[in-house]
């Protein structure tokens, strides 16, 4: 059985200000309105035997991810189990935990197809065909990765040197020494006349210098390491026991001490953080005795920078400018402009990336777009909220948008989804005023509980227990005005919460 495993998370710092730690790259909307995560689910469901897709993601992204999945017409949420990480970690723990879960719930012979949620692939038929090749190799005992034909000398990717062809499903005992010159890949496809299942991996190569990358592209022997993998659960665990027993032992302990063993499976923080922080490449793939690469026949991008994004999004005008949203471009060349809400005007500039999210603006030279992550580093050092959250913040119950954030007040617009409820809470340093602008809210203030209709208001004093609920079948919208001397989220004292967030007992 083929079980796709979606790895979803990461900060995506090079795509700030759209990608932020609370709303990372997998949730970014492309030009067609779909997120990268939704597109990854599309690919996974096309291949999943029985429609089962396993997702490994951060606990903070669980409800956001379920909301994305719920919008997919072909998704059965009961067949989309989740493994929830309590903190950020590398890919080896995530993949080994997924293999342990699959062995227990699907079977040791389950073939896992590891799919990062932040890749863009458009040729789904070619991807499905290559995945079947990888599955066949996995069933013959290979650990398989997918290699991408280089289109240019990229220094931001790791490379794979390809070895001898694997002509049929009969496995070789061990990878052979690196072969001589191989014919180059053509147009993303294997050389004509090559009907092999894949290639043995000659070597994994670190990110090279520009000159070395040029030689790799010219040789035809190298492909980019895509970060996608395929292997049987039992094969991966057997290899892990030999090449990285510390990783396997820590993952087994973490799996055994999971808070629960039915979806969503949430791992205990202490046991999870005891796992080595190492990638699946370093921990297993580079040490395993039988590793194959399937040279991809599909298109691929990991959209690692705004330059890459600009090459994918929108059609260029006669001067090479690409615009998404509202913009006026005058006597400018080769610019990418994205604006969610406001009009952007560019006059007499060239080779710029301009991204406006309403609460932040990025202006960068196209060739320096990789350095956007330095902006995020500075914001984090300054403890600035725009490193992590947007003006609109998603919550399990809905979302809120900050309309004003001043020293003496904070104003939000809240949207609460049908049937959802905010935590029972109080604040020590602020009072709140709620005004319903659409729908009917159920409100508790102290010991009183009542309905609040459109154009009606309620006042919540400091240190008063309160709760907001949507008892209706449609979204409700409220304006919340906070008054006090501090408006941070850490002034929320949760007493009850249906979403599993930390609660405190009354003194």
TrEMBL record:
Residues 383-497 form the Mannose-6-phosphate isomerase type II C-terminal domain. GO terms for molecular function: isomerase activity; nucleotidyltransferase activity. Residues 4-313 form the Nucleotidyl transferase domain. It comes from the Bacteria. It is an enzyme of class 2 (transferase). Its EC number is 2.7.7.13. This is mannose-1-phosphate guanylyltransferase. Pathway: Nucleotide-sugar biosynthesis; GDP-alpha-D-mannose biosynthesis; GDP-alpha-D-mannose from alpha-D-mannose 1-phosphate (GTP route): step 1/1. The lineage of its organism: Bacteria, Pseudomonadati, Pseudomonadota, Gammaproteobacteria, Lysobacterales. It catalyses: alpha-D-mannose 1-phosphate + GTP + H(+) = GDP-alpha-D-mannose + diphosphate. Keywords: GTP-binding, Isomerase, Nucleotide-binding, Nucleotidyltransferase, Transferase.
